[in-house]
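Before relying on records like the one below, remember that each one covers exactly one chain. Contacts with other chains, cofactors or solvent are not represented anywhere in the record.
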Amino acid sequence: MQQHKREEDRRDTSCLICRLIQGELPMYLVCEDPSFVVMLDIHPVNPGHLLVAPKMHVDSFYDVEDALYIPMMLLVKRMSRAIKAVFAPLQVVMATSGVGNRHVHVHVMPVYGLYDVVPKEVIERQEAYTPPNEELVKVAREFAAYLTAQGS
């Protein structure tokens, strides 16, 4: 049976978030615990835009074990409440990431309007196109078949 690696061994030295956590790059730390860091995003949607990241390097959300995922999402919820209290936005939204930087993290953002997170052009394009009923039925069936096969 393979032993669990130490947390330090599960960091990626080429990963921006791992380098921030290791102190190799400056970050604006909001809080941390043994498993997670919360920092300000240096390219915020609005002031108060936070990143919640596990200290352990994990490439994708589908690879996050439940034992890590649950406390991470509870921390996201806690940070959402802090943003609401400090900035009083219209809403606090979250987005997961990992495309540009392959280290799981959650953006927790105060928003004041519809176009803060999604550009107006994208929303207008979405509103202008509704897939045909047959396409929606087909996609829903594909998901249902997959979930049934997985026993979910």
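Residues 1-9 have pLDDT under 50 and may be disordered.
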